[in-house]
Amino acid sequence: MYSIERYDASCHEEAWNSFVAKSKNGTFLFDRNYMDYHQDRFTDHSLMCYFKDHLYAILPANEKGETIFSHQGLTYGGLIMDERATAENIISLFRQINNYYRQHGFQHMVYRPTPWIYHNLPAEEDIYAIFHACNAKLTAKEISTTIMAGRPMKWSTLRTRCANKARKNEVTVHQSDDLGAFWNILSNNLTNKYQVKPVHTLHEIRLLQSRFPNNIRLTGAFLHGEMIGGILLYHTKQVVHSQYIAANDLGKELGAIDLIMHEILHQEKMEQTYFDFGKSTEAHGTVLNENLIHQKEGFGGRAVCYDTYEWEL
Hints:
Structural class: alpha+beta
Strand content: 25-35%
Number of strands: 17
Shape: elongated
Helix content: 25-40%
Distance between the termini: 21 Å
Oligomer: single chain
Order of helices and strands: EHHEEEEEEHEHEHEHHEEEHHEEEHE
Number of helices: 10
Largest sheet: 11 strands, mixed
C-alpha cells in the first residue's frame, strides 16, 4: 500500500518542495532551499512516503549514530502531510516508517512535531499515530509565548510605558535590509550575556533572506537613522515568528523592542493568525527563563508548547 524512499536531492528536490508548499502542516523551513543551507552539519535521512503511487507525506530527518531525528537542524519538524491524510492511514504509515528505519540499522527515534499554530489545516494525526503505533513517550515540553492577532490581550503597564518612552524619544520603526547592523547588535548581546553566537551566521541569514525575501524580514528601531534594535521575523501562512530579538544598550533604555512590537501588532495589520515569540525554556523544558517569559507575556502572549517524543524502533 505504501512505498518509502530515502530523499535524494538529484531526483526528489522539486517534488519535495512542491509538496511542502501545498501540504497541510508544512512551512518554508521545510523547503530544501532552506533546509539544505546547513546540510554539511547533518547526515540527511529524510523520507518520501507514497500511497498508491501518490506522494502522501514526507519526513524531514537526519541520522546520528543509531538514532533518527526529525530534524536536528530545525526548530520543529515531524511528518508533513497531504491534506487528504487520515488518522488510519498515518497510523499504518508510521508502522512502515518504523520498519524502514529498523531495517536500515536504526534503533531509536526522536520526534518533534510541528506545533498546531503552524498548521494550515488540523494536522495532528501524527501525534496520535506515534502514541497508538509507536508507544512514543513525551520527553520534552518547552513553552513558547503566542499572541492571537484577532484577539490581542491588553499589554502590561510596563510594556506600554516603554513603547511610549521610545515614541517620545523619537525612535522610529520600519522594515530594513541592514542585516549587518542587526547582527552586530545581536552578536554582542549573545556574547556578553551567554558567551554564545547566533545559530545562523550573518552569511547564512543573508543567503536565506535572499532565497525567501517574503518570509524572512527584519523590522528595526532607529534613532537619528542609527539602528538601536530589531526583530527578525519569519513569516509563514499562519504565524509570524520572532526568530531573533535584540537591542543595544540605548535601545533597551529607550524601549525600542516595545515600540517594534506595537508597530508589528497594531500598525502592520498582520495577515497571519498568530505572533509567536518562541521558547523561553532550556534543558528540554525543565528550566524556565522567568524574566524572558514575563516580558513576552507583558505583550499579551500566552502559552503554546513545543513537544518532543521518543520511541524505540
